[in-house]
Amino acid sequence: MKLSEIKQKLVSTETVTFILPNGDTVPEHFHVTEIGLITKNFIDCGGTIRKETVVNFQLWNANDTEHRLKPQRLLNIIKLSETALGIEDHEIEVEYQTETIGKYDLDFDGKNFLLRNKQTACLAEDQCGLPKEKKETNPDTQTSCCAPGGNCC
Q1: With contact defined as beta carbons under 8 Å apart, do 108 and 1 qualify?
Q2: pLDDT at 134 (0 to 100)
Q3: Which of 55, 74, 81, 97 has a CA positioned 20 to 30 A from the CA of residue 89?
Q4: What average pLDDT does this structure show over 112-139?
């Protein structure tokens, strides 16, 4: 989810609720302790130099169990961070601590903000030496590769 999208969602939602990938809800007394811009410059295993930029939200639970972050308040914090830090419309990454600090992608189900597990991947599969996955064929449209003379074995 991009920053512009969360701003649109906050205008029409009544509460700010984050749901973890396992279905647990981030306690409703959470704080957004940081909104920042993170730029990662790196080189992948194929030698390509890359740059990724995300807007980072850090969620934190305190012992003030009466705290509730309202949508308009979060929208104001976002707008302040855009102005103060020059943040543009990038994808959002959410940090939240369970056993360790997790980083999540953000989605919305119409009512709740959903924290989605991030995945690692090889960005240079064509240069990395990984075996290509065999593609299964549809027997209705093609001859199976495992048919006699199919060259799969």
Answers
A1: yes
A2: 56
A3: 97
A4: 79
**153, two tokens:** 């074995």
| Phi, psi dihedrals of residue 125, rounded to the nearest 5° | -55, -35
Lowest mean pLDDT among 1-10, 17-26, 123-132: 123-132
The residues near 36 (Cβ < 8 Å, ≥ 6 apart) are 55, 56, 58, 81, 85
Contacting residues for 83 by C-beta, under 8 A, at least 6 apart = none
Average pLDDT of the chain?
Answer: 88
58, 103 contact by CB (below 8 A)? no
Q: How far apart, in whole angstroms, are the C-alpha atoms of residue 17 and residue 13? A: 10
Helices (H), strands (E): how many in the chain? 3, 6
Q: What is the CB-side half-sphere exposure of residue 27 using CA atoms within 13 A?
A: 13
Structure tokens at 131: 């075996």
Nearest CA-CA partner of 116 in 102, 129, 127: 102
Tokens of 23: 């279905």
Return the H-helix or E-strand segment holding 5: helix 3-12
Tell me the per-residue pLDDT of 13-38, one tens digit each, with 9 for 90 and over.
999 999 999 999 999 999 999 999 99
CB 18 within 8 A of CB 96: yes
